[in-house]
Design a protein that fits this description.
disordered N terminus; 112 residues
């Protein structure tokens, strides 16, 4: 169990680092002077969208300990996003959800 917890924490830290890197890339892109302004705007919007989706997933993972059902609702909403693969792999979301439901089943089995 401790190994799983360590893996989760590492994963959240990795996501935070990725958010930091994407935010830095966004700053650089905003400062850049590209010849094609529409291309620059498209790249900026892509980065913003990616950051937004990743933040939502990080928030769902953080919410989990206090309100697991709310975290699962947030995950389902993320999976409904048309461009979810832009920011986070849907497999990561499904993995998180499967882990939740496996825990619930383990708890149910222990109490019956």
């Amino acid at each position: 169990m401790m190994h799983v917890l360590r893996l989760k924490l590492m994963s959240i830290r990795t996501m935070k680092k990725l958010l930091g890197l994407l935010s830095e890339a966004l700053k650089c892109m905003n400062k850049a002077k590209m010849q094609d302004v529409s291309t620059q705007e498209a790249k900026i919007n892509f980065l913003k969208r990616r950051i937004s989706l990743l933040k939502k997933f990080v928030h769902a993972r953080r919410t989990y300990e206090d309100d697991a059902e709310e975290a699962m609702k947030q995950c389902l909403l993320l999976l409904d996003e048309a461009d979810i693969e832009t920011g986070i792999r849907s497999g990561d979301i499904y993995g998180f959800m499967i882990e939740h439901y496996a825990r619930q089943e383990t708890i149910r089995r222990r109490t019956t």
